[in-house]
Specification:
The chain is α/β, with parallel strands linked by helices. Helix content is 33%, strand content 15%. Helix 12 links the parallel strand 10 and strand 11. Bound molecules: adenosine monophosphate (AMP). Adenosine monophosphate (AMP) binds next to helix 3.
């Protein structure tokens, strides 16, 4: 299947070619033709499946059917749970709409509203927003939604988790009843189905990722150890493997700050990203990570949701989430766009029950291992085999005493410095059955930017 066969216009095909996409992802194949037909869509797709292009491209094409009015009005609204996701969705929309005459912008909280207000005043066609700031600016009279023809709810499950249901309902009441609605969600709880019933008219159901399955290409490993030695162990893993582009999850904001500080002290560049950080700090950390100035991003679940970091090779669960579905979201950050990846969980005795919950959800056992010198002093070691030189994972093949004085010396070229033989750059795959079998030409990933701040 090609993008052309999906019915996309020349302007969009050109933008897709510029971006380097070769074939549509499964969600794109399924969603694009149905959106172009004008159907409402209920889509099961998590971040990493190419869902943004799945809704953005046909939406842009349909919006172009009508000549823009002299005074532009908001004709499409995309709601997202987090600021980072909003910024990324806008970046994608602007990429796909670069050969058409549509204006788009993003609004979210945590930054001064004045630049957003003046841009809104100048007239825009597509608005990407988080619910809180949207409500705020609407209440102040800066936004009218009465001309909205398209509504996209992106990561609807997370919006409900974050308590946005009331805001969403209010926002719906400000829009005309006649419009096209697209709802994307990684999971389908009863609440999501109720929301969907209230919003969508005769929706087409589109599924890209079977619920709660993890990418086949992600190597999942559990390292058992004592809780108090986790910082030491993670430092060793990152150092010995010479890993860069590592996303680490902690359960709390305080834990994220603490770990990030410890890693920096160990000469591993790290930054924390969570809800208590200012928007400026979050954007800076993410941009630094994408530019490879920062090796490790330490995040909490909510902050990390929706982050688009191409070809991320490593995800580490410093602590396991107590909700098994969050594990699936977390490790969905690696093995993206057809590339392989490693998801490592450091598990102390008190977390064994979480492992069992995750295994039950996934319907498979996670390989459990113990690193020499980090044997747990409590709890079962059942199923765990000792990690020795012979069965060491890829990426940990450097002796631990080989630390450079400064890890970042000589890394100015933006290429992956993982000495593991496990480089993901340009890696492509076409046989993955769970929604990720789409290909892209290798691209320069060193210039990533969320684009959020420059536009508001
Ligand atoms: P998303 O699920 O929308 O967050 O997209 C995940 C990643 O896949 C992003 O980096 C996109 O740029 C990339 N992507 C989207 N569609 C394609 C495609 N057809 N081929 C290759 N990469 C894609």
């Amino acid at each position: 299947m090609t993008f052309k066969e999906l019915g996309l216009s020349e302007a969009l095909l050109k933008a897709v070619a510029d971006k380097g996409y070769e074939t549509p992802s499964p969600i794109q194949e399924k969603a694009i033709p149905r959106v172009l037909e004008g159907k409402d869509i209920l889509a099961s797709a998590q971040t990493g499946t190419g869902k943004t292009a799945g809704f953005a491209m046909p939406m842009i094409q349909l919006l172009c059917k009508t000549e823009p009015q002299k005074r532009r009005v908001i004709r499409a609204l995309v709601l997202t749970p987090t600021r980072e996701l909003a910024a990324q969705v806008l970046e994608d929309i602007q990429t796909y709409s670069k050969y058409v005459d549509l204006r788009s912008m993003v609004i979210f909280g945590g930054v001064n509203q004045n630049p957003q207000v003046s841009m809104l005043r100048s007239g825009i066609d597509i608005l990407v927003a988080t619910p809180g700031r949207l409500m705020d600016l609407q209440n102040q009279g800066f936004i009218s939604l009465r001309d909205v023809e398209f509504l996209v709810l992106d990561e609807a499950d997370r919006m409900l988790d974050m308590g946005f249901l009331r805001d969403i309902k209010k926002i719906m009441s400000m829009m005309p009843d006649k419009r096209q609605n697209l709802l994307f969600s990684a999971t389908f709880s009863r609440e999501i189905r109720t929301l969907a019933n209230g919003i969508l008219t005769n929706p087409v159901t589109v599924e890209a990722t079977p619920e709660n399955t993890t990418a086949e290409l992600v190597d999942q490993l559990v390292y058992r150890c004592d809780a108090k030695r986790k910082i030491e162990l993670i430092t060793k893993l990152i150092w010995d493997g010479n890993w860069h582009q590592v996303l680490v999850f902690t359960r709390t904001k305080h834990g994220a700050n603490r770990l990030s500080e410890k890693l920096n002290k160990a000469n591993i560049t790290a930054a924390a990203i969570h809800g208590n950080k200012s928007q400026g700090a979050r954007t800076k950390a993410l941009a630094g990570f994408k530019d490879k100035e920062i090796s490790v991003l330490v995040a909490t679940d909510i902050a990390a949701r929706g982050l688009d970091i191409p070809l991320l090779p490593y995800v580490i669960n410093f602590e396991l989430p107590n909700v098994p579905e969050d594990y699936v979201h977390r490790i969905g950050r690696t093995g993206r766009a057809g590339a392989s990846g490693q998801a490592i969980s450091l598990v102390s005795a008190d977390e064994i029950e979480y492992v069992r919950g995750i295994e039950k959800l996934l319907g498979m056992r996670l390989e459990s291992t113990v690193i020499e010198g980090f044997e747990p002093t409590s709890g079962p070691v059942e199923g765990g085999k000792k990690r020795t030189k012979e069965n060491k994972p890829t990426g940990t093949n450097k002796p631990s005493n080989s630390r450079p004085a400064n890890r970042n010396q000589g890394r100015g070229n933006g290429t992956s410095a993982n000495g593991s033989g496990n480089s993901n750059s340009g890696n492509s795959n076409s046989g993955n059955s769970n929604g990720r079998n789409f290909r892209r030409k290798p691209r320069n990933t060193s210039g990533g930017n969320t684009g959020g701040n420059s536009r508001d």
